[in-house]
Amino acid sequence: KRQAQKAVEAAANRCGMHYVSERWLGGTLTNFRTIRLRLQRLEQLEAMEQDGSLEAESKKHASRLKREMRKIRTNLEGVRKMTRLPGAVVVVDAKKEYLALREAGKLGIPTVGILDTDSDPDTVDVAIPANDDSIRAVEIILNELADAVAVGKTMVSVRQQETGPRPPRRVRPRRPA
């Protein structure tokens, strides 16, 4: 939701999590390899901008490359440092973000959603009843979730120091063979 974009970005940055604040691109989770390729292209374009080779191109070609960079940055900035699939997905409006919920469901990723009276509670695993149009309500809920994530991260790091690091868990899609 447009009114929740800043709150989502602020809460995600505060606890160091990934986010999508613009529109959800279909296949962000199920076709993660392609998303990683687009992020590599963004890094190439930024490197071209840094070393000045973007300015050496013709005006038209440079304009196309800058537009491509701007579009990738707008859509994928929040998942830029995501190297593996998330452990949970939080959505602000379950009715509008049905694609994200559907992808998470296919991959077996738990979902948390802020639901209004017009949303179906069966689409999410954990439903938080609230007004998803209210900026303040969304901000309060996301700040509480961000605090819980930050506390959980510190607990995991303390536990890892005691027992040693665990190997990363690999999530595979459940597709029929």
Descriptive notes:
The protein is mostly helical and 177 residues long. Helices cover 52% and strands 7% of the residues. The chain has six helices and three strands. It has a three-stranded parallel β-sheet with strand order 1-2-3, covered by helices on one side. Strand 1, helix 5 and strand 2 form a beta-alpha-beta unit. Helix 2 packs across helix 4. The protein starts with a helix and ends in a 14-residue tail after the last helix. The model has no long low-confidence stretch (mean pLDDT 84).
Short description:
The protein is mostly helical and 177 residues long. Helix content is 52%, strand content 7%. The protein has helices spanning 5-15, 32-51, 53-56, 59-76, 98-107, 135-163; strands spanning 89-91, 111-115, 126-129.
